[in-house]
Write a structure and sequence with these properties.
alpha/beta, binds zinc ion, 13 helices, four-stranded antiparallel sheet, Alkaline Phosphatase, subunit A, about 20% strand, 2 domains, globular
Length: about 425
């Protein structure tokens, strides 16, 4: 019986081979389109938030897929790391070197998250090509809900579907918007993204170990549960790859660690391009040497470098947008403007949280969870760099990406 089956198989294989070689004009079957990939950012969500018992939906995705912890890129801030996740490049290479930017080529404008005109201006983003641009250019359609950069035309391309960021839109409404995009099928999406800011906001206000952060984690977890239910109801859950990431972690930041940045150096001789946990300073003309000397020993909990002397492990300092002096605060310290400190005391006069600290500090690590047909189940990955997410995403959606700073290797163990 076994022999007969083998013979039958051999004969069939021969016939198939003859057919294949004698019908060369027949068009080859196009390769199957990769299934939908949904990339979800939970702002400021640390990997250990998964172990606090508030996240049943995320924990179920992790148990049936892979989980891990990512080291953010320097600086461990929101815009730099969101753009790293979708370009595979370090901030020094993609140009989004801080949440606030200046660029001599874009004179008179200061980029910040609260400047909608700048956020939607492609010139700030065009040093790198985000994955949705490569996707659209290669026929994979993208629905990008609230990812930094998605409001701008980059390389002449916008995502097929996108929306202006609306922080007031509830987590559930974000999920429902995405599900409606998936339903529309005109054309079907190959890449979709979601963004939830609640864990970051509550982390800043109350600190990473607060009940408020746990409640925020539960809220975004419920939204992910809603998404999973929505996919199941559409028969799409088993075929959809879901990749959950965060941009950075969160560390406690007490009120006693607030320092007025103007006390570091004579404010009449310098402009601070960025403040907070990562301070960027540019001396006014004629004061370069004096400001550099003062900043380099300005405060015992702030380490400053001339940009070209920043430690190599941070991969930071070559981009023209990086100001001449770059400083990194010790964990828990925060060098803000007098008005920002006043606002903090007025609105949240209590110890809170911050990020932007050394990306090698475990408190800055970001969550990673991946689930779907591409992933093995029960995998726990060793800590990896967030530049490695991009090669994973291009593989999942079947798009050729630009060369970045990461590689697939560290996340390969999660793949089937
Ligand atoms: Zn963030």
């Amino acid at each position: 019986m076994v022999v007969l089956r083998r013979w039958t198989a051999l004969v069939l294989a021969l016939i198939a081979g003859v057919l294949a070689t004698t019908t060369p004009t027949r068009a080859a079957k196009p390769p199957a389109k990769p299934p939908l990939t949904i990339l979800i950012s939970l702002d400021g969500f640390r990997p250990d938030y998964l172990d606090r018992g508030n996240t049943p939906s995320l924990s179920a995705l992790a148990a049936g897929g892979a989980r891990g912890a990512m080291r953010p890129s320097f600086p461990s801030l929101t815009y730099p790391n969101h753009y790293t996740l979708v370009t595979g490049k370090r901030p020094d290479h993609h140009g989004m070197v801080n949440n606030t930017l200046e660029d001599e080529a874009i004179p008179g404008v200061s980029f910040s998250m609260s400047n909608p005109e700048a956020v939607g201006d492609g010139r700030w983003w065009e040093q790198a090509k985000p994955i949705w641009v490569s996707a659209e250019q290669q026929g994979v359609h993208a629905g990008i809900l609230f990812w930094p950069g998605s409001e701008a035309r980059i390389d002449g391309v916008r995502p097929g579907r996108w929306k202006v960021f609306d922080m007031k839109m509830s987590s559930n409404d974000r999920v429902d918007t995405l599900l409606a995009w998936i339903d529309a099928k005109d054309p079907p999406l190959g890449l979709a993204t979601l963004y939830f800011d609640r864990t970051d906001t509550e982390g800043h206000h109350y600190g990473p170990d607060s009940p408020e952060v746990n409640a925020a984690a539960a809220e975004v977890d419920a939204a992910i549960g809603r998404l999973v239910q929505g996919l199941k109801a559409r028969g799409l859950y088993a075929t959809t790859n879901i990749v959950v990431v965060a941009d950075h972690g969160m560390a406690p930041q007490p009120l006693s660690g607030l320092v007025d940045v103007a006390t570091l150096v004579d404010p009449a001789k310098v402009r601070f391009v960025s403040t907070g946990s990562v301070v960027g300073a540019r001396a006014l003309p004629g004061f370069e040497a004096e400001v550099a000397a003062a900043m380099l020993k300005a405060h015992p909990h702030l380490t400053c470098w001339k940009k070209e002397k920043a430690p190599a492990r941070y991969g930071y300092g070559t981009n023209p947008r990086v100001p001449p002096i770059v400083c990194l605060a010790d964990r828990g310290w925060y060098f803000a403007t007098a008005s920002a400190i006043k606002k903090r005391w007025a609105e949240h006069p209590r110890d809170g949280g911050a990020h932007g600290y050394d990306p090698f500090d475990p408190a800055m690590r970001a969550v990673f969870v991946a689930h779907g047909p591409a992933f093995r189940s029960g995998v726990v990955l060793p800590v990896f760099d967030n530049v490695d997410v991009y090669p994973l995403l291009t593989r999942l959606i079947g798009v050729k990406g630009d060369k970045g700073d990461g590689k697939l290797g560290p996340v390969k163990a999660a793949l089937r």
